[in-house]
Amino acid sequence: MSETPEPAFGGRRALPPNTSNAAENDPPTVELQGGLTPRGFNPQDYLNVTDVHLFKERWDSNKVDHHTDKYDSNKLIVRRGQPFYIQIDFSRPYDPRRDLFRVEYVIGRYPQENKGTYVPVPVVSELQSGKWGAKVVQREDRSVRLAVQPAADCIVGKFRMYVAVWTPYGVIRTSRNPGTDTYILFNPWCEDDAVYLDDDKEREEYVLNDIGVIFYGEFNDIKSRSWSYGQFEDGILDACLYVMDRAKMDLSGRGNPIKVSRVGSAMVNAKDDEGVLIGSWDNVYAYGIPPSAWTGSVDILLEYKSSQTPVRYGQCWVFAGVFNTFLRCLGIPARVVTNYFSAHDNNANLQLDIFLEEDGNVNSKLTKDSVWNYHCWNEAWMTRPDLPVGFGGWQVVDSTPQENSDGMYRCGPASVQAIKHGHVCFQFDAPFVFAEVNSDLIYITAKKDGTHEVQTLDTTHIGKLIVTKEIGGDGMKDITDTYKFQEGQEEERLALETALMYGAKKPLNTEGVPKSRSNIHMNFEVETAVLGRDFKVVVTFKNNSPTRYSVTAYLSGSITFYTGVSKGEFKNETFSVTLEPLSFKTEEVWVRAGEYMGQLLEQAFLHFFVTARVNETNDILAKQKSVALTIPKVIIKVGTKATLSPCHKEGGTRAGLDQGGKLGLPPEVTRSCLLHLVREIRPSSTVQWEEVCRPWVSGPRKLIASVTSDSLRHVYGELDLRIQGRPSV
């Protein structure tokens, strides 16, 4: 078996791809000219390094000034484009007139200077903005203190550090020392970095906040749940670097946030690359964890790294939560975004076709497109030098495996500004995202003779509301206007025309098709629906004309996945209404608990479709709505006080629930996820128990609990806590 070729420092010969941050091949400790040791040469006769100090404690300026003091790591973690300090101790006093040394940073197994994987840092008199350099800031006896500045575009990852000293016969280099390993991250505080964000509150939220809120539910019943991103937890930074290693991403590209975020969007799902999470939308979660049971990203990423196999299971909000951890951990500002009524049509043609029979019923065989009640993706902040000026800033990146992009299931980064203005020609995947927020709902009658007739269209249903977490709080921020202009504005029409000009498809011509051409207006409301109880659907008809009309209506109720895909119909009812001139009438349809309880899916979504035909004119009216059943919550209480001291006191946490299953508390306050198994909980009963928590970080934290069982999921609760700092002795 042939030996692996030695690394070529300085890029002096072709080498295999350098795709692993974890792989190593150390440079020689002695590099002599000609390769032969001169007679009488003794390395100890020259300047030797006796020790290197990195000032890597959490309270040291290196971590505080670089905003990396929250990372639970004993390694030095810094951000690029910004100086940090090291101290080198020599065997004798350093004399700059006759001694020459430099610091070297190496990453991967096959480092090359021209690839940025071998970095000889020059000692300079003054540091230059955005460039590698080292400046002597203090000399004392045998010690030299340096300010080392990484380039603002250098590779992000874990570097090995060496000190090389020049002699008349060659170079003497320190040996491999894991204690001097240095992590270099993206730097939103550095103006020269591609991820620079100039607002301090935004940096605090989108980089440093390790607890977030993800919105889900339905447009008329928006729900939220906290998510522990945990980007500073022990082992998470290494897990994020491992994700890029598993992708076989070349190290030379890991300083580019465009490439890093695109690779991340592919690797967070396991669809085609053995990535982090396996998606499942069929309500069957054998041999894994149901998506609704996760409360954060930490367990998922640590399990992926330790097992080196994909974790089961995720859905869109889980993919988005894990991807947000990945981005923030590496230093890229990121946030989770939720789009209510998100279009998913496979060819991104800006039209979702709902086919109806001539009697107004939905034709399920022809209707293939779906509208997700909500869909979560991420936005990452970065410049886009590959696009025209003005398209930097927030970029859509989506790790939920929906459609293939350049041979892999991934999406983005796509400029939000480009999407808003219809510039879908710019990479990556802008047409798909544009369709998710701008598609029209087209109602088409499939006639018995095989022809299709467009009946009406709804241009406001898709992308109804796009939200993210507000800065500095748990509330909701409406960002719909960053993706689209208001319906009916001239700018909105111009954006659509621009998208069509750049290749967005709209196969059916809907020009001139009225949004509603009937004198009859129909709408319906679903009464607050509580799990296990009867409720009613109220359908209202209004006659706006002086003519008497009769209407035949059909109501269909289906159990649906949150993706809009129907599992099966549980309710269908036909009724007739006579409308006198200039009048309105309501019709109540009762839904019994026994009709839906035996078929419920994970998020307890019910979808109602009401179609009606005006008998005198044959006009078709159609409306659809989804509702989420109100389900129980977990109640969490702290036994005595809501204030605990880290590593000092134990606090009793009481959790109660009134539906059965397994409850988990995440490592927000507990260091590890706590699980509690409940064999059975009878109807209308309550179960309570206590857990002992040992907080380990101070500040505002959350206790998050989720319950999962075969019969009910998405049962959830949380409690805000403030952890006191450890008392000084």
From TrEMBL:
Keyword Acyltransferase listed? The answer is yes
**Record's keyword annotation contains Cytoplasm:** yes
InterPro entries (UniProt xref): Ig-like_fold, Ig_E-set, Papain-like_cys_pep_sf, Transglutaminase, Transglutaminase-like, Transglutaminase-like_sf, Transglutaminase_animal, Transglutaminase_AS
Superkingdom as given in the UniProt entry:
Eukaryota
Q: Which UniProt keywords apply?
A: Acetylation, Acyltransferase, Blood coagulation, Calcium, Cytoplasm, Hemostasis, Metal-binding, Secreted, Transferase, Zymogen
Specify which residues bind Ca(2+) according to the UniProt entry for this protein. 438, 440, 487, 492
- Region span, Disordered: 1-41
Domain (Transglutaminase-like): give its ranges. 308-401
Give GO MF terms, alphabetically. Answer: metal ion binding; protein-glutamine gamma-glutamyltransferase activity
This molecule's function is given as: Factor XIII is activated by thrombin and calcium ion to a transglutaminase that catalyzes the formation of gamma-glutamyl-epsilon-lysine cross-links between fibrin chains, thus stabilizing the fibrin clot. Also cross-link alpha-2-plasmin inhibitor, or fibronectin, to the alpha chains of fibrin.
What is the protein name stated in its UniProt record? Coagulation factor XIII A chain
Protein's organism: Catagonus wagneri (Chacoan peccary)
Show the taxonomic lineage: Eukaryota, Metazoa, Chordata, Craniata, Vertebrata
Record gene name: F13A1
